[in-house]
Write a structure and sequence with these properties.
By secondary structure, the protein is α+β, with helices and mostly antiparallel strands. The chain has four helices and 26 strands. The strands form six sheets. A six-stranded mixed β-sheet has the order 13-14-10-9-18-25, with no helix packed on it. Strands 3, 4, 6, 7 and 8 form a five-stranded antiparallel β-sheet that branches. Strands 11, 12, 15, 16 and 17 form a five-stranded antiparallel β-sheet that branches. A hairpin with a 7-residue loop joins strand 6 and strand 7. The structure holds 2-acetamido-2-deoxy-beta-D-glucopyranose (4 copies). This is Fibronectin type-III domain-containing protein.
């Protein structure tokens, strides 16, 4: 009996001793940052793979749960992003024209730390400087992609003025369904210069990051590349509203219209209605914004005036982070106006000034030609007089040269 209690006593003492030892160990426990931090570029136009190894000092700590805190500089948001993971790799999106900065810490927890979390005081860091290749100032300007009525995507850009002549630009893209980057399927050109790309036959997928790289070559060397990463459902431009109806009461007017055809959900649409009224005391214009997919508007109006309305639509910011206004619908008017086709007017407006100048010059030439012809027809008599005068002069003073005369 005495032996048994003695055994229990020793066991308790040993347990206490172990606990004490562990806690002193824990109190002073520090952990090193990870090792071999490497960033690799699989050629996905900005999606980089980050990998690291646990610190060597951890290899004997079986009772520890090891995790990592990865921090990287998000150049799109201009801030540090931070994630915690138990894996040893992570994939993140970077703008390859900017510095890539990544840091990792080691995190320890579990019985070895008395269930508190310990973070390494240091981090392992890799800074990858932005490449300085490419002729300076040749990046494209205003690169944007528009998802037309959620049917097909079109990307556009403007050339920098510093771009050398005979430069050839190329657009590459990648998304996770593709093994490797592909080039634009159909370039849009203006005067032989590439200004855009249409993805019509094989549509780009929605709700996934699509990475773009616009680079190229010139006689002076490679052009500075431009990178972009976006999800196309955030860049919708709706089709113009086609069906507008106007109903008039004694002093009221009701305008209603239908959602544009296509895949854009109606509740995501917001509208802008432009109201132009014209009366004896002049013109007046106002616009009204309607959200929540509302497709009608009732107004009290002055019936002695002409009222014209047109509508355009846009995907609301709750449905997409960026979106573009659709084109305006055709106007509907009250009282109904005869189809005043605005096209001819537009054409006249669109005629550049130099055509007017050319027409004016031609008119002046024709006019002067007419005047000259008239003189030519009238002149013979006068000319004959002059001619005889000259001959008589020369006859009298034959030595006089024509230059002195
Ligand atoms: C270990 O954790 C227990 C319970 O959370 C706490 O009472 C004890 O003080 C901790 N020991 C040390 C050394 O932190
Ligand atoms: C891990 O344990 C082995 C054997 O017990 C020892 O030789 C080695 O030095 C230890 N490593 C570290 C980092 O403590
Ligand atoms: C443009 O980018 C693509 C895709 O990364 C690459 O294959 C090609 O070599 C680059 N061209 C130039 C001129 O840099
Ligand atoms: C509209 O015109 C009619 C006749 O010219 C006039 O009697 C009426 O007061 C006008 N209404 C308004 C709102 O000006």
């Amino acid at each position: 009996m005495a032996r048994k209690s003695r055994l229990t006593y020793t066991a308790t003492l040993m347990l206490l001793l172990i606990t004490w030892k562990e806690s002193t160990y824990c109190n002073g426990l520090t952990v090193s940052p990870p090792e071999n931090l490497v960033i690799t570029d699989p050629g996905h136009l900005g999606q980089l793979e980050i990998s690291w190894n646990p610190p060597d000092s951890l290899s004997n700590m079986t009772e520890c749960s090891v995790r990592y805190q990865l921090e990287y500089y998000n150049t799109y948001r201009d801030s540090w992003a931070s994630i915690r993971t138990s894996k040893r790799t992570y994939t993140a999106q970077f703008d390859l024209m900017k510095d890539v900065r990544v840091r990792v810490y080691t995190l320890l927890s579990g019985t070895c730390t008395n269930d508190t979390m310990i973070k390494s005081t240091d981090y392992t860091e890799v800074i990858q400087k932005a490449p300085s290749t490419g002729v300076v100032g040749t990046e494209v300007l205003d690169f944007k992609c528009v998802f037309h009525n959620m049917e097909y995507t079109e990307c556009q850009w403007r050339r920098s003025e510093k771009i050398p002549d005979n430069s050839q630009q190329k657009l590459y893209f990648w998304h996770k369904e593709l093994g490797q980057t592909e080039e634009c399927p159909k370039y849009n050109t203006l005067g032989g210069v590439r200004i855009g790309c249409t993805f019509a036959d094989v549509p780009l997928p929605v709700f996934t990051d699509i990475n773009f790289c616009l680079n190229g070559s010139s006689p002076e060397g490679p052009l500075k590349p431009t990178f972009a990463s976006l999800q196309i459902q955030n860049h919708v431009k709706c089709a113009a509203t086609k069906k507008l109806h106007l109903q008039t009461g004694p002093d009221k007017l009701e305008l209603h219209w239908e959602h544009p055809d296509g895949k854009v959900p109606g509740h995501c649409l917001e509208y802008e209605v432009e109201h132009n009224q014209e009366g004896p005391d002049g013109k007046e214009s106002s616009t009204e914004s309607l959200t929540g997919g509302r497709t009608s508007l009732t107004l009290s109006i002055d019936i002695n005036k002409t009222h014209c309305f047109r509508v355009r639509s846009k995907v609301h910011k709750y449905c997409a982070s960026t979106s573009y206004w659709s084109d305006w619908s055709h106007p509907v008017c009250q009282p109904e106006q005869k189809d005043v086709t605005p096209e001819p007017d537009a054409i006249w407006d669109a005629i550049p000034v130099y055509i007017y100048i050319a027409v004016a010059i031609i008119a002046m030439l024709v006019l002067s030609l007419c005047v000259w012809a008239m003189f030519k027809l009238k002149k013979p008599v006068q000319e004959k007089k002059a001619e005889s005068l000259l001959t008589s002069l020369f006859a009298r003073r034959p030595l006089l040269g024509p230059t002195e005369a």
